[in-house]
Amino acid sequence: MRVFDDLHVVELSDTAAAAIAGRLCADAGADVTLVEPPAGHPLRREGPCVGDDSTVHLHVNAGKHSRVFDFETQADELRKLVEDADVFLTDWPTSRLERLGLGPTSLRDRVPSVIITQVTHFGDYGPYRDYAGSNLVALALGGQLKITGDPDRPPLSNYGAQAEYQAGLSAFAGTVANVLLRDADGRGDTLDISVLDVVATNSEHRGPALNLGAVANRAGLSVSATYGVYPCADGFVYLTAFAPPLWERLKSMVGLPELEKERFATQAARLENNDELQAVLTGWTLSKTSDELRGFARRGDPLTVMETPERLLTSGQWRNRGVAHDIDGYSLLGPPWPHDDAPRPAPALGEQA
Length: 353
What we know:
By secondary structure, the chain is α/β, with parallel strands linked by helices.
């Protein structure tokens, strides 16, 4: 997918939200200029590292060029760069952009054709507009923490900056839409993305919660004995056999006479005897290695081995679809669509070509 081949994107960012959107623009063919202060983008300093390079920077800034600006003394040059761009992508709040003459309203007045994508923690309007935010704050206020973790323990956060990455994907999708709209009428538009809004609307329990008052609760690793994560001899495996046809497949796969007993004969009976069934299935999965379980999965049985990053990077699926690439001694993931060419490595500070 190279839909952005003739597009110039200027990215002014501090977080993964705008950075991953910029990375996807580059993957789609855009010429992306990453604007950095003399000290470099903050994600250049986020560990862990490969040698002297942040692995986060290597991923989110791949495919971009870098230009260094002193924001105090080179504001005019920066404005000119943005005004000449097709897309201005940023996670800076409007109050901060206005000090550089890059507020969305004034920029739109000067350059009606520019597409502005602004992705901040709370959006550009509303009572939370000027609040400081973080990935954890967005997960908490957006409701995802409530449904993550064990039911009898405090909520758990996903690893890393998942809320910001979700928002970055939404920012990229919105940018694509606005590019298509501008191609139709010649006018740019401003997209105001809130990380909080993205987290809240991406939670699948939102429909039942808002309309029926049915609020999802934490279920830990297993929603039920036939729907959850189990340990195996050298890792973990996910079983999904809640539906009757899958239950029959699971019984055939496991081959234990206990599963034929009357107390496991129906969904209701299995739920009533959930702990006993879970113990039986745990004993079976612990007796198997992950390689043995992969054999069951290949023949269509209802389970999935939880893979390690090392196995994923060498898997035929990822290599065949161009998802994983080896570049300069480290592994780099491509975009989430088939992509034969390896992404260009993340730039050194100030590297423009």
